[in-house]
Specification:
The protein is α+β, with helices and mostly antiparallel strands. The protein folds into 2 domains: 72 residues, Orthogonal Bundle (Arc Repressor Mutant, subunit A), CATH 1.10.10.10; 102 residues, Aspartate Aminotransferase, domain 1. The protein has 8 helices and 7 strands; from the N terminus they run H-H-H-H-E-E-H-H-E-E-E-H-E-E-H. A hairpin with a 6-residue loop joins strand 1 and strand 2. The radius of gyration is 22 Å and the shape is elongated.
Length: 192
């Protein structure tokens, strides 16, 4: 739950109603993508009538979807506008784009960006063509160099490869540099 304002000026212009509506949206996670109204009400600590009003408004605006038979709710397609708007306006993407393009041009592959901020991961991904078995080849080469990555095939219902580098949050800068150097060398070895 985000912090509430802690000074009088901020409190004066703080909308508790908006906070409550957004708290409903924060209930929906990959681990729990479907909710009943009762469980939402209990989770956010709001009475069922108020929760219904907020949820119904979010359904009408397309931020939530409600199954007419089961009454179960899940995020609606309109919710993506928030994430995409943030992702495409983020400065990190602009800073990283030249490096991503250079990697793509050097190795003739599609390379994209993912970043982590607070408790959110944003990803832009176009997988390697599956026929090239790039994920397996890079994984093997990096494994031999002592670098562990995740490889994945058949992403999002499409025939493609991708790699995920998931360093620990406590990684030191020199360790991250070593990982990047190993990946650079592995890409040169595998992709020529």
């Amino acid at each position: 739950m985000p912090k509430k304002p802690n000074n009088n000026t901020s409190k004066q212009y703080y909308s508790v109603s908006l906070e409550r509506g957004l708290s409903i949206l924060r209930c929906f996670t990959p681990d729990r993508p479907v909710w009943t109204l009762k469980h939402i009400s209990e989770t956010i600590g709001l009475n069922k009538t108020s929760t219904y009003r907020f949820a119904n408004t979010l359904v009408q605006l397309g931020y939530l979807k409600k199954d007419p038979q089961t009454k179960l709710m899940q995020l609606g397609p309109q919710i993506a506008t928030f994430g995409l708007g943030y992702f495409y306006s983020n400065t990190l993407r602009e800073i990283a784009r030249p490096l991503i393009d250079e990697i793509s041009d050097t190795y003739n592959i599609t390379t994209e960006l993912a970043f982590y901020e607070e408790d959110t991961i944003a990803v832009e991904l176009n997988p390697f063509p599956r026929r090239d078995k790039v994920a397996e080849r890079l994984w093997q080469t990096l494994f031999q160099k002592g670098v562990l990555i995740y490889n994945s095939t058949g992403l999002a219902g499409i025939d493609g490869d991708a790699l995920l580098i998931g360093p620990p949050f406590i990684i030191e800068e020199n360790e991250m540099d070593a990982v990047v150097d190993a990946i650079d060398q592995a890409m040169a070895d595998v992709l020529g």
